[in-house]
Amino acid sequence: MAEADERRYHTPIGELTHAQLRERVRVMEPGIVYFRELPGGDCDNFEAMLGIVRELGEPMGTFVVIIDLGDATRPSPALLEKLLEATRTIGIRWCAVQSTSRLMKAVVEFVLRRMLRNKPHTVHSSLEEALVEARRALAEHRSDSMPS
């Protein structure tokens, strides 16, 4: 892990270490992993952050991902593919917190509707709304998983 922590990632907000990326990802409560997307995020940075999401979420077994797009800028097609793959393989649901940018809101709405048709996801105007939905999704999943 020390090797990963020494790696540097180039971002529009400067060069960040793996440890600094890790600061943008956290367990909010059992079963809910939050991460704040970087502005101008590229595939390398996004993949590193997804690795942290997996690392924090997998010990819980079942978890919901809240992705905060407040800092996000228009994603590249390659990043959209990474996002799509991540939603298929990480967590039981993704809850997206919208950017305040009208352009990014339109981009996110389009991408989520078009690409994530078959994967449970929701879009929220605040972190609080996303957290409520994440809790609901976890409770629903747990009740559906209970033996009859």
Could you give the topology of this structure?
Layout: H1 2-6, E1 8-11, E2 14-17, H2 18-22, E3 25-29, E4 32-36, H3 43-57, E5 64-68, H4 77-89, E6 93-97, H5 102-115, E7 121-124, H6 127-145
Parallel strand pairs: 4-5, 5-6, 6-7
Antiparallel strand pairs: 1-2, 3-4
Helix pairs in contact: 3-4
Word description of this protein:
With 148 residues, the chain is an alpha/beta fold. The protein has one domain: STAS domain (Transcription Regulator spoIIAA), CATH 3.30.750. Helix content is 48%, strand content 22%. It has six helices and seven strands. It has a five-stranded mixed β-sheet with strand order 3-4-5-6-7, sandwiched between helices. Strands 1-2 form a two-stranded antiparallel ribbon. Strand 6 (93-97), helix 5 and strand 7 (121-124) form a beta-alpha-beta unit. Helix 3 (43-57) packs parallel to helix 4 (77-89). It is globular. The model has no long low-confidence stretch (mean pLDDT 84).
How would you summarize what this structure contains?
This protein has 148 residues and is of the alpha/beta class.
Helix segment tally = 6
What's the total number of strands?
Answer: 7
- The H/E string reads HEEHEEHEHEHEH
Biggest sheet, open or closed, and with what strands and sense?
Answer: 5 strands, mixed
CATH superfamily membership? STAS domain
Indicate how many domains the architecture comprises. 1
Rg measurement, Å: 15 Å
The largest beta-sheet arranges its strands as 3-4-5-6-7
Mean pLDDT: 84
CATH topology: Transcription Regulator spoIIAA
What is the CATH class?
Answer: Alpha Beta
> Could you say which overall geometry the principal axes of the C-alpha atoms support?
globular
Which segments are poorly predicted (pLDDT under 50) over 5 or more consecutive residues? Answer: none
Indicate the structural class.
Answer: alpha/beta
CATH architecture: 2-Layer Sandwich
What distance lies between the first and last C-alpha atoms, to the nearest angstrom? 43 Å
